[in-house]
Amino acid sequence: MDYSKQRDSEILFWLNDQELEEIFSSRYWNDEAKEKEKDFYICEGDEQKLIKYLKEKTTYYAEYESIIKFLAKIGLRIKSRSVDVAAGVCWTSALLSKIESVERIYAVEISKHRVLKIAPRVFDLFNANTKKIKRVIGNFYNMKLGDASIDFCFMSQAFHHADNPDKLLYEVYRILRPSGFILIIGEKVVSQRDFLRRYIKNAVKIFTHFFIRYRNRPVYKLFPSFADLYPPNKESGDHYYRIKDYRNIFKSNGFLLYKNKQRDFTTFVAMKQ
């Protein structure tokens, strides 16, 4: 079915089916059969499993609340027009819509069933102000929005899925107003301890590979690099970064990065410079 032929005041189509299929990892995120096994698939009832996923199984809801509070500490305020980048099932769009100062949210996502089927149920679950939300089937590398037309962007479990982070930040920089910023949660920040553990684990694999068949082959290098030990996931598009990697990527694309370090997670605010 060509979803671009649909007409819905709440949905925009920045991509047709052919363009969608050409996007890296699009097939993975549009596999609805696989998604039915996940906690956020609430089309068959049991909406509370999404709440448990966000508040108990993960730290995502806590991260959302923390980053909103962190904004005030650094003298920023949420207002007016926003883009929820790689919005998923749009739970962050739903929460943002309840903030009085927010006037419009473009929830941009490449997964059709998330946008068309799951999101409306999520909106009901969180009592969203749907008049503020425009659901978008679109590519975050090419957002059909004017230059300097957006006040802030939200990225929840989004940034590390970009196979070309420079291209993503170039596009976000373009649409943000001079005082704009990005809120970033749900990142898989690799600590020095994480890296050391994987480094040692890889060394053990090398010495024991003759006796044990491992699912993932070890990296056969005397001194493997971070990129060697943390390669991107070719199926889902996941990428892995350390704090210094985030800082360097954002700085090179014109953003000043603020780190919000909590006990169980790290979130970020990136200000346009």
Word description of this protein:
It is a single chain. The protein is an alpha/beta fold and about 270 residues long. It has 2 domains: about 5-190 and about 235-270, Rossmann fold; about 190-230, no CATH class. Helix content is about 35%, strand content about 20%. It has helices spanning about 15-20, 25-30, 30-35, 50-55, 60-75, 90-95, 110-125, 165-175, 190-210, 225-230, 245-250, and strands spanning about 10-15, 80-85, 100-110, 135, 150-155, 175-185, 255-260, 265-270. It has an 8-stranded mixed sheet with strand order 1-4-3-2-5-6-8-7, with helices on both faces. The longest helix has 17 residues, at about 190-210. The model is unreliable at about 1-5 (pLDDT under 50).
Ordered list of secondary-structure elements with their pairings:
Blueprint: E1 11-13, H1 17-21, H2 26-29, H3 32-35, H4 48-57, H5 60-73, E2 80-85, H6 91-96, E3 102-109, H7 112-125, E4 133-137, E5 150-156, H8 165-175, E6 176-185, H9 192-208, H10 226-229, H11 243-252, E7 255-261, E8 266-272
Parallel strand pairs: 1-4, 2-3, 2-5, 3-4, 5-6
Antiparallel strand pairs: 6-8, 7-8
In the CATH hierarchy, what is the superfamily of the largest domain?
Vaccinia Virus protein VP39
Helices, by number, come to 11
Structural class designation: alpha/beta
CATH class (first level) name of the largest domain: Alpha Beta
In short:
The chain is an alpha/beta fold. Helices cover 36% and strands 19% of the residues.
Label this structure with key terms.
273 residues, alpha/beta, Rossmann fold, 2 domains, eight-stranded mixed beta sheet, 11 helices, 8 strands
